[in-house]
Structures are given as C-alpha cells and as structure tokens.
Design brief:
Blueprint (H helix, E strand, L loop, with lengths): L1 H19 L2 H16 L8 H12 L4 H12 L10 E8 L5 E8 L2 H14 L3 E2 L9 E10 L4 H10 L4 E4 L5 E5 L4 H10 L3 E11 L3 E3 L2 H15 L4 E6 L1 E3 L10
Parallel strand pairs: 8-10
Antiparallel strand pairs: 1-2, 1-3, 2-9, 4-6, 4-7, 5-6
Helix pairs in contact: 2-3, 2-4
C-alpha cells in the first residue's frame, strides 16, 4: 500500500502540470459527460456528476466548459453525438508489474491500438480481460487534507462506514470504503468538519511487485506516463512498490 500511495501522491503533483497541457481538461470533461449520461444531469441528485464537477473546478476548467460537458451528457448540446463508453484494459509492465487502465472512449479500436503501441514501445504488453484484475479490489477513497487529529479522523471514518485509512504526508489521509458507501463516507467526513478534497473509485492492489532496478523503474514510469498521456485514458493503476530514491525518476 505504501508504494501505491507514494505513486498516488506523485500523480497528484503531476496533475497540475498535466492540466496546463490540456490533458486533464479532456479527461475531466469526458468524465462529466459520462456521469451526466449515466444519471440525472443535476449534480445535486447525481453524486458521480457532482464529484466530476468538483474535480473539474479544482483543475480550473471554465464553467462554460463544464456546462457544455453536462449538456453533451444530457443530450441537449446541439448535434454532438459522441458516445463515450467506459472500458477497462489490462496488461503487464516491465518486471511483470500488473497495470489496469480505465478509459472513456468513442472508438474501441483506436484506443486498443494506442494502448498496444504504448505497451510494446515501453517494455510491456497489453493483455486479455481478466489477466491482472484479479490482483486488484475496487474501493471508494476519500482524500482528506489538513488532518491534525488522527483520533478524530478515525472516529469520523468509522461512523461513515470506512474500512481503513492511511496517513500519507502533509497532514493528508486516504480513507477507504466499499464503493457503494463512498457518498455516505464523504458526507460524514464533511459533516464532522474534515476537508474532503476528492472522492473517487480506485483499484487497490492486493499484492505488489518490488522494483529495485533503476532502469526498470525508469521504463515503468515512462510506460505509465505514456499511457496517461493518451486522451482516452482516465486512470492508470499498477501494483508496484519502489524505494523512495527511485521515485525521482518519475519526473526525469
């Protein structure tokens, strides 16, 4: 879990840079479209949509873009007919690291071809459905910042139906729960005065591969960066752990 959390922290730091490139804008706009289409297009009544909008605002996406994405999802935006669907892909990275990719795409063939090329060029291979997903469990995760009293966080988490929590760094915590309980947990933590900056579904590895070789780590980071750079890709999760000193390779 520690390696996963360190990588999650790196991803959050990188998100700021990605947003400037417009990458995050594309991802979050698609997430809003799908959320609005899968439920009512009213964030007050649609937790998935509300969460997607909160993420978009945190990434400084203009309100006009957000409203346009909601309209596209609701089918009220002109003649736009793009039909995005959520698909999960699976594969192996360097050293046998298991990788799950969540995508939103309007063209399955294009996405599969792009992913296959990314894997083959970076020492991995795209696998069949089910080849690595058995090593992951999907959980709801609330990101809580400004935690100064861990005991109070524990009490609030238990009241909200959490399964576990983990302190990461800079007074930040990740609180885990069953996917169907995410909205309840998020609201309970907020009601108790905690600052919930994100609520998301995440694949959590049940086992991990330790990466100690710098070249292997560099290849792995490059593969994940390449995958995350694809417009169709929403999230990339892997089951590796690396030493702290190798994490710097992820931004080199």
């Amino acid at each position: 879990m520690a390696g996963h959390s360190k990588w999650a922290n790196i991803k959050r730091q990188k998100a700021v840079v990605d947003a400037k490139k417009g990458k995050t804008f594309t991802q979050l706009s698609r997430a809003i479209i799908v959320a609005a289409r899968s439920g009512v297009p009213d964030p007050a009544l649609n937790f998935q949509l509300r969460t997607a909008i909160d993420k978009a605002k945190a990434a400084s996406i203009p309100n006009d873009n957000i409203e346009r994405a909601i309209a596209k999802g609701a089918g009220t935006f002109g003649t736009d007919s793009a039909n995005f669907e959520a698909i999960r892909y699976e594969g192996y990275g360097p050293g046998g690291v298991a990788i799950l990719i969540e995508a939103l795409t309007d063209n399955r063939n294009r996405t599969a071809a792009d992913l296959r090329a990314a894997f083959s060029k970076n020492g991995g291979n795209l696998g069949e459905t089910g080849c690595v997903s058995w090593m992951f469990d999907q959980k709801g995760v609330c990101i809580v910042q400004g935690v100064v009293n861990e005991e109070q966080l524990l009490e609030a988490s238990l009241e909200g139906g959490a399964e576990s929590y983990e302190m990461t760094e800079d007074e930040m915590s990740e609180v885990f729960t069953e996917i169907g309980n995410l909205e309840t947990l998020s609201q309970t933590l907020k009601d108790k005065g905690f600052k919930v900056t994100d609520a998301e579904l995440r694949w959590v590895p049940s086992n991990s591969v330790e990466v100690t070789d710098p070249e292997q780590a560099r290849s792995l980071f490059k593969l994940i960066d390449t995958l995350e750079g694809l417009d169709d890709v929403q999230n990339v999760t892997a089951n590796f752990e690396v030493a702290e000193e190798l994490m710097s390779l992820s931004i080199s």
